[in-house]
Amino acid sequence: MLRHTSFAPIWDENCHILILGSLPGAKSLAAGQYYAHPQNQFWRLLDHVLRLQLSPSNYINRLAILLENGVALWDVIESAQRHSSLDSDIKAVAPQDLRTILPALPALRAIAFNGKKASALGRRILHARGDWLQDGGSYPIRLLDLPSSSAANTQRFDDKAAAWSALAPYARPA
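Request: output the structure for the sequence above.
Response:
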C-alpha cells in the first residue's frame, strides 16, 4: 500500500478560520492542490457560505482569496497509507502536530473539521473534548464538525451548506 503525504498548510497570521481535512485524495495529490477532485464540493460550499467567488478562479487565486478572507487550510494527517481516496481506507496514520500552528494564528477563532475522520483525529490531536479549545491566549477557539465535502458523502448539497453555514459567524465582516 502506498504512503501518501499531505500538503503544507495554507495560512497567514491574519487567519481566523482554520479548515482541517483528513488527507488529500488521489486527484488532489496528483494535482498538488487541496480539494482538486471536480466533484468535491469544498470550493462550492465556501462560495455559498462565505460568498467568496472561489469556483471560477484558478487554484492560486482561490488560495489568495481564502487568505484575503482569513481562511486557512491544512490536514490532520501528515502521512498515511491508503489504496483509494476514501477516508475509511486510511491506515498507519502519522498525525500532524496541529498545536504547532496555533501560536502562529493569533486571530484564530474557529477550527472546522471537514468530515468525521478529520474531526475524530483532529480533536484527539488537540486534546479537545468539547466545542471549544483554549488557545492559551485571550480567546477560546470554537471547534466545528462539518459534513465531508467529498463526493463520497452523498448528503444533499443544501444539507451540507446548511451545516457549513456554521462558519459564517467567524467570517470577516464585509
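The chain has one domain: 3-170.
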